[in-house]
């Protein structure tokens, strides 16, 4: 099951991201789904978003 990372993290304009970035976020969301601890799951997603944000800064709001 893949979740939409932008649903929890609205500062991400995921619909506009390049395919590689969307794939990376979807993969991170899939990995996060298997993490039992809520805080660790959120930190996993934040780290994935930070990596994508470094590569594609124009797609993110401040």
Residue share in helix: 55-70%
Tell me the quaternary state.
single chain
SSE string: HHH
Distance between the termini: 29 Å
Unreliable stretches, pLDDT < 50, 5 or more residues? none
Strand content: under 5%
Number of domains: 1
| Total beta-strand segments | 0
Structural class: mainly alpha
Rg for CA atoms: 11 Å
Major sheet description = none
Shape: globular
Total helix count? 3
Mean pLDDT: 82
Q: What's the gist of this structure?
A:
By secondary structure, this protein is an all-alpha fold. It has helices at residues 5-8, 19-33, 38-55. It has one domain (5-59).
What does this structure look like?
The longest helix has 18 residues, at 38-55. The protein has one domain. The chain starts with a helix and ends in a 7-residue tail after the last helix. The protein has 3 helices and no strands. The model has no long low-confidence stretch (mean pLDDT 82). With 62 residues, it is mainly alpha-helical.
């Amino acid at each position: 099951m893949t979740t939409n990372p932008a649903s929890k993290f609205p500062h991400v304009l995921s619909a506009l991201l390049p395919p590689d970035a969307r794939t990376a976020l979807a993969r991170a969301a899939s990995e996060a789904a298997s993490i039992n601890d809520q805080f660790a799951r959120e930190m996993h997603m934040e780290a994935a978003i930070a990596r994508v944000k470094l590569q594609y800064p124009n797609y993110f709001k401040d």
